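Hey,
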Amino acid sequence: MIDKNYCMSSYLAFRYVEREDVEFYPGMQHRNFKPVPDAERMLVKTSEQIGELVEAQINKLREVNKLGILLSGGMDSAIIASYMPGCDAYTFRFLGGEMQKEELHRAEYYAKQYGLNLHYVDIDWNTVMRHLDACMEAKAAPVHSIEPQILQGALQAKSDGVTMMLVGESSDLIFGGMDQLLSKDWTVEEFTNRYTFLNPKLALREPVDTTYLFERYRLDGGKIDFLHFMDDVFSNESSGSYWNAFGVAGLSYYDPYARLKMADPLDLNRVRNGEPKYLIRGLMAQRYPDIPVPNKVPMPRPVDAYFKDWKGVSRPEFRKDIDYSKLSGNQKWQLFCLERFLNMYEGAK
């Protein structure tokens, strides 16, 4: 079914087109990411078990692959890197190294600590524009702001002979790292307002209601089953960015955490009292005992700098009274990316 208005609204609200049976234009077919089935995931109870299973997976992969890793300054990739001595690590460096210096220094420490060959992947606006259209064409939809830079990293690794890249992307979802979204028991209305990335009503002349997706997880008393919502919806949006970018590069990737599952229910009290990803934090302390466990930092992308002087969208699908002063850099990216996608297939208007 073709419904451009729905697809635009879904992308703004969720950062992907949630319904697989609806497309922007005739002849397009987008596919959404599918997580590893529960039956194929291994249960873990302790930090030590996570480490053992991550190491076992990596050792098996190394038998037939030249491995690389996207190494950030966070816990998840640092832990994976600790089981990959001698492999190649790729760390994003933005705007000539002027952004996220502390995170960059941590990645350098991780690589040195375990003997990885560290490569920098330099990212600026030109890099983003060089890869954006290919990412959108492959997805048949606008994309997340991290996808062009992931594609750059994947292409650089591929040129170095890497045949499989490792990432730690799914750890947050599996082990309770989304502490802001886990911070309380939400009502449907509260969670809808908190999770929606950009309300389509604020930007589109003909928005389509996207609250149906939140209603799907409504519980008695007006509460929402936010844990299952995140398992189903957030995992698709987040992991789909890696899946698409690596697919464009033609490079295999693998997430060892995606094959794991907590044997015990997530202890929300621990998460809400300052211990997000408590099992991962425990393993990080074991693998890097000489440094403090770092706080979570999302994959950096300098969207605020990119869009500091941006004049906004101009196509007729968008409202003329959008208040850009109230939008974050990521929200401006969504509008920019959506307009560029529409221009690719309809031409500028």
